Amino acid sequence: MRSTLAPGQLILHSTGVSLPLPSRNNALIGRSDTVSGFFPDIDLGGHGALEAGVGRRHMMLSIQGVSIVAEDLNSTNGSFINGQKLQPNMPQPLSNGDELRLGNLVFEVRIG
Q1: What is the pTM (predicted TM-score) of this model?
Q2: How sure is the predictor about 85, in pLDDT bands with cuts at 50, 70 and 90?
Q3: What φ, ψ does residue 10 adopt, rounded to 5°?
Q4: I need a labelling partner for 42 at 20 to 30 A (CA). Which of 24, 26, 65, 111 fits?
């Protein structure tokens, strides 16, 4: 049974930057908003998130059994796994090597 997202990571296609997944059982992905004091677990703000259409509360990654699942949090610009649009609030399993797109930001999922 898997207990944390680590040692997984998201690799940003446009730059090759690796974003490690935290040693927790869930992580909110989005972009920070200093005005409202909102800071997601994985902040994509420094990676062009606003311009790419990533919401402040865009996606939740969490553990379900032995899998990591991705759940779109009713984002405006959507989330996609391997080109398939996720239905909001419907967790979908991720596999090593999957393409994950939030708005127009594209990542490769690496699950350790």
Answers
A1: 0.94
A2: very high
A3: -115, 130
A4: 65
